[in-house]
Amino acid sequence: MDSQKNFSPIFSMEFFPPRTPEAEVSLDQALEALRPLKPRFCSVTFGAAGSTREKTFETVLGIQGRLGLEAAPHLSCIASTRENIRDVLQGYKEAGIRHIVALRGDMPSGMLSAGQFRYANELVAFIREETGDHFHIEVAAYPEMHPQAPNLETDLKNFKRKVDAGAQSAITQYFFNPEAYFRFVDDCEKLGITIPIVPGIMPITNHTQIARFSEMCGADIPRWVRKRLEGFGDDRAAIRAFGLEVISDLCRRLLEQGAPGLHFYTLNQSEAVLGIWKNLGLESR
């Protein structure tokens, strides 16, 4: 963890583009509630093959223009061409965006070809070729291994390729076991990787939802946490209270051991993040 202790903690948040008028209201409410926390930046997700590209652009402009917060759009390269990625980058440059989260993304259902980019390191290299140092580039990291990686060693080498291509910092997939993060950072240091690797934090507010998300992304829910959640049944208040306690303890330990910040997956909701923030005593930072 020595490499991570060299960085001042950065706190950031992720949002997704709304697809309905009701979802737009929810996003606006969440942003207004979380704005006083002054996140370093707000990332905005990007659908497979650009399925939410226009909405991502609109959301990014709203966050950076109307709210005055730095926006960092996700850019997914699967099923994309060099030309349409070039167009997106130019659009963001013209809008004053300086921060990109560069991802491989998931293959859209029914598509047989990955397109002109196969891996995120190729996207990072292309962004650097096209725009030089204009963008600060974030990439993804997987303390518990990418669900499609054959083994940990290969996954670490893939991460290093993204760093070598020009990534300046990373945000991890969420996890509940801090030891997985500590070991991952130690393994990265052995490969000479010393960029900030910020833990991704997923609040626990719904048992069914967190179980489904974790199954999809390969995040391990510790048995004791899973059993406690199962024991609460449909008691949503108890689940939220327990989740707040568990995630606050996780964040506290990460920061105490030198993690360079926290990146909250908000799911366009504010209550859980506000509770964790308060528990960590970050109001006065």
3D architecture notes:
By secondary structure, the chain is of the alpha/beta class. The protein has a single domain (2-284), classed as TIM Barrel (Alpha-Beta Barrel), CATH 3.20.20. Helix content is 46%, strand content 15%. The chain has helices spanning 21-34, 53-66, 82-94, 120-131, 152-165, 178-190, 207-217, 223-232, 236-256, 271-279, and strands spanning 10-15, 42-44, 71-76, 99-103, 136-141, 169-174, 197-201, 261-265. It has an 8-stranded parallel beta barrel with strand order 1-2-3-4-5-6-7-8, surrounded by 4 helices. Helix 4 (120-131) packs parallel to helix 5 (152-165), helix 8 packs antiparallel against helix 9 (236-256) and helix 9 packs across helix 10 (271-279). The longest helix has 21 residues, at 236-256. It starts with 9 loop residues before the first strand and ends in a 6-residue tail after the last helix. The model has no long low-confidence stretch (mean pLDDT 92).
User: What coarse outline follows from CA principal-axis ratios?
Assistant: globular
Major sheet attributes: 8 strands, parallel, barrel
Count of the separate structural domains: 1
Task: Tell me the radius of gyration.
Answer: 18 Å
Keywords:
285 residues; alpha/beta; TIM Barrel; 10 helices
Give the secondary structure arrangement, pairings included.
Layout: E1 10-15, H1 21-34, E2 42-44, H2 53-66, E3 71-76, H3 82-94, E4 99-103, H4 120-131, E5 136-141, H5 152-165, E6 169-174, H6 178-190, E7 197-201, H7 207-217, H8 223-232, H9 236-256, E8 261-265, H10 271-279
Parallel strand pairs: 1-2, 1-8, 2-3, 3-4, 4-5, 5-6, 6-7, 7-8
